[in-house]
Design brief:
The protein is mostly helical. The chain contains 4 helices and no strands. This is DUF4913 domain-containing protein.
């Protein structure tokens, strides 16, 4: 099939119109691409401000993520221990403290028992998570079932970390049980006082 040919000057005018229309079409395609891309506001004068912020004031610093108390440095540890102590004394013990007995020992100086501090801090973090409205209506029940019961049973067990402390309110007592310490390597054994190796 042979191409169509138009006689006279109209053909050049038609070709010019087609070229112009194609160039405009390409320009519109580029414009559409630029409009659909995410805007780059970094060069705009308001870019360093967020809605609701006063110009000239620094942006707020995000609150730090909660961290387990035994991983904190000394200053942060003390601040977190103060907050934990408030929760233990104002909420946990009055509500879930139960009576002190040989089956359920306690220690008024519990904060000196590092393992107990770890247990109670983990319990407190779980409490905060499960009483948050986002936890849903069953959040507190999950906290009781999965965290409170197990934690209290572990730290207040007759052979637990507080077993050498107070077993009666009439006899306040506090003693930190020694840890097993490092395992000796062969050749590091110390001879016993009677001359027999331990």
């Amino acid at each position: 099939m042979e191409p169509l040919r138009f006689p006279g000057r109209g053909v050049e005018g038609l070709e010019a119109s087609v070229r112009r229309l194609m160039a405009e079409s390409e320009q519109q395609a580029r414009l559409l691409d630029s409009l659909s891309a995410a805007p780059d506001d970094s060069a705009l004068p308001y870019a360093r401000f967020t809605p609701g912020m006063t110009p000239g004031l620094p942006l707020p610093v995000a609150a730090p993520e909660p961290r387990f108390i035994l991983t904190l440095d000394a200053v942060a540890f003390e601040a977190e221990l103060d907050a934990l102590s408030d929760w233990v004394h104002d909420f946990l013990l009055p509500t879930y403290g139960a009576e002190v007995s040989t089956a359920m020992p306690w220690c008024r100086q519990w904060a000196e028992h590092l393992d107990v501090v770890g247990w109670l801090h983990a319990l407190w973090m779980a409490y905060q998570q499960h009483t948050d409205p986002e936890a849903g209506l069953s959040g507190p029940a999950v906290w009781h079932r999965d965290f409170l019961t197990h934690t209290m049973a572990a730290i207040r067990a007759p052979g637990g970390p507080l077993s050498a402390c107070m077993t009666s309110l009439d006899r306040p007592s506090h003693r930190i049980l020694p840890s097993p310490g490092p395992v000796p390597t062969p050749g590091d054994e110390q001879p016993a006082e009677n001359g027999v190796a331990a």
